[in-house]
């Protein structure tokens, strides 16, 4: 599309253009004003301790944050910038991928459906393994297109490289080789490729690029693989209402117009073809093979296990391209209107915080807390610092401090990646400590204060210090309990 065509399109679609500008501007503002999230701090903690892989996720997010902070400095804004730039690259590659499968007009519709989603906003603002995964997933499909449909042999190798980098991002990438095999098995036209060496060479290069993760797991008793597989089975129970919860949060991150549109189009496609999978045109079949397995697979288990809102994200890359041809401009305009409403509401929440969030997964108060704890730390310079709310407070304090802040392994509990960094707890024996505990719900500190009993099992005595209060506009938004713990015993007091 040349400049004249773009200008003509913009005149006809002024509402859409205005919506896109509003959403893009708000994302830029969010990047500047949104505080550090615990996830940002935790994956930056990864990057400060280089390893082949990590306990709960592969290393790509650590590589990404390390690259940006090495060049631009250790700042919250730089962490957000890394996510924003990577997500913009994903959108660019998404459009290029869509152009391979559709006309310029339909590819534009696909981009207009994806760009304003809350999913893209989340990826732009919060550091998670999904940020590099989405880029590598999209690049894998680009490479596979050239390998399969254009017969370019070298692209099989590049596809394997991208698959491997996707697996280095998140284990959800196992759906990539599965999707490719599914396509080759069911496509009568391209099934012959199964008997050629090229798909298998692709998988070999995926394995080679995934070797850091594999080696780390072999060195650590398959800890990460077990955590992400059998370690999650403890939450299995029959909860059919959770299916509604998954529908709700997927409709939220895609916006209802796109999500329910996808559902309707998928239903009509299944009705049309039934079990006649080979009758689906090859390019549509290709897109569906990288959409349906992850999308339907997680949906099917949602009645027995809580599916997190980001697990289906990669499936939407090919799913949106496949479905975009069926969306009229009326629905695309509705998508933009819904997106503006959602993002304006998000702006109000981020800037003014009218609705308190009773969770540690919040952007408010972490910087103030770190500053206040630093002042307390200066009064007791020989004390070490730790927390025990999974990884959150410990990760944030590690970001702001120039010393190791420990996790709940200090009191004998599993501590995710903290179990693999500075693990000689006997070196802390006999020292005093500062324990910082976040209060999830203001006014309800019963559970947090119960931690004192657990602390006394590892320290000779425990003394409460004044709590740390974070305020916004004179209003208390976060509270952290602080305790001084005396004479640490790694093996437990009296044992």
Give a structural overview.
The protein is built from 23 helices and 5 strands. The mean pLDDT is 90. The N and C termini lie far apart (74 Å). α4 crosses α5. With 495 residues, the protein is an alpha/beta fold. The chain has helices spanning 3-12, 14-33, 38-48, 60-72, 76-101, 104-114, 118-125, 130-148, 154-167, 175-186, 198-209, 211-219, 223-228, 242-254, 256-273, 282-289, 292-301, 315-323, 329-352, 366-379, 392-400, 446-449, 451-455, and strands spanning 384-386, 405-406, 433-439, 459-472, 475-488. The protein has a 5-stranded mixed β-sheet, with helices on one face.
Note the topology.
Blueprint: H1 3-12, H2 14-33, H3 38-48, H4 60-72, H5 76-101, H6 104-114, H7 118-125, H8 130-148, H9 154-167, H10 175-186, H11 198-209, H12 211-219, H13 223-228, H14 242-254, H15 256-273, H16 282-289, H17 292-301, H18 315-323, H19 329-352, H20 366-379, E1 384-386, H21 392-400, E2 405-406, E3 433-439, H22 446-449, H23 451-455, E4 459-472, E5 475-488
Parallel strand pairs: 1-2, 1-3
Antiparallel strand pairs: 3-5, 4-5
Helix pairs in contact: 2-19, 3-4, 3-21, 4-5, 5-6, 5-7, 5-8, 5-18, 8-9, 9-11, 10-16, 14-15, 20-21
């Amino acid at each position: 599309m040349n400049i004249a065509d773009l200008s003509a399109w913009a005149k006809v679609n002024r509402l859409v253009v205005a919506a896109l500008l509003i959403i893009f501007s708000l994302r830029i503002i969010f990047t500047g004003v949104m505080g550090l999230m615990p996830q940002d701090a935790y994956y930056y903690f990864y990057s400060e301790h280089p390893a082949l892989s990590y306990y709960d996720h592969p290393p790509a997010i650590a590589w990404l944050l390390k690259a940006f902070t090495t060049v631009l400095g250790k700042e919250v804004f730089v962490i957000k910038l890394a996510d924003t730039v990577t997500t913009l690259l994903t959108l660019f590659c998404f459009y290029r991928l869509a152009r391979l499968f559709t006309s310029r007009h339909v590819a534009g519709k696909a981009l207009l459906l994806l760009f304003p989603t809350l999913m893209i906003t989340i990826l732009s603002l919060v550091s998670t393994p999904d940020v590099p995964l989405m880029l590598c997933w999209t690049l894998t499909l680009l490479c596979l297109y050239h390998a399969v449909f254009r017969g370019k042999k070298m692209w099989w190798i590049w596809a394997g490289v991208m698959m491997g980098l996707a697996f280095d991002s998140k284990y959800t990438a196992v759906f990539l080789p599965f999707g490719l095999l599914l396509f080759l098995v069911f496509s009568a036209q391209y099934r012959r490729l199964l008997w050629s060496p090229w798909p298998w060479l692709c998988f070999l290069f995926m394995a080679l690029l995934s070797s850091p993760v594999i080696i780390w797991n072999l060195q650590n008793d398959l800890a990460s693989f077990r955590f992400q597989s059998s370690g999650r089975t403890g939450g299995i129970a029959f909860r059919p209402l959770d299916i509604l919860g998954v529908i709700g949060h997927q409709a939220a991150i895609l916006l209802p117009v796109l999500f329910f549109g996808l559902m309707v189009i998928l239903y009509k496609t299944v009705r049309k073809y039934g079990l006649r999978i080979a009758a689906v045109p090859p390019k549509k079949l290709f897109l569906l093979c990288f959409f349906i397995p992850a999308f339907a697979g997680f949906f099917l288990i949602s009645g027995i296990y809580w599916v997190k809102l980001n697990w289906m994200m990669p499936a939407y890359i090919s799913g949106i391209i496949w479905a975009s041809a069926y969306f009229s401009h009326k629905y695309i305009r509705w998508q933009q209107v819904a997106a503006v409403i959602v993002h304006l509401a998000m702006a109000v929440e981020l800037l003014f915080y009218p609705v308190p969030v009773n969770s540690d997964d919040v952007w408010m108060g972490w910087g103030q807390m770190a500053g206040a704890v630093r002042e307390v730390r200066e009064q007791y310079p020989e004390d070490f610092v730790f927390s025990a709310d999974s990884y959150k407070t410990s990760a944030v304090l590690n970001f702001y401090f120039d010393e190791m802040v420990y996790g709940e392994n200090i009191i004998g509990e599993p501590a995710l990646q903290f179990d693999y960094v500075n693990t000689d707890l006997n070196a802390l024996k006999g020292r005093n400590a500062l324990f910082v505990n976040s209060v999830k719900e203001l006014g309800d500190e019963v559970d947090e204060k119960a931690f004192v009993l657990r602390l006394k099992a590892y320290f000779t005595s425990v003394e409460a210090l004044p709590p740390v209060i974070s305020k916004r506009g004179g209003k208390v938004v976060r509270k952290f309990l602080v305790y001084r713990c005396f004479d640490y015993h790694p093996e437990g007091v009296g044992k």
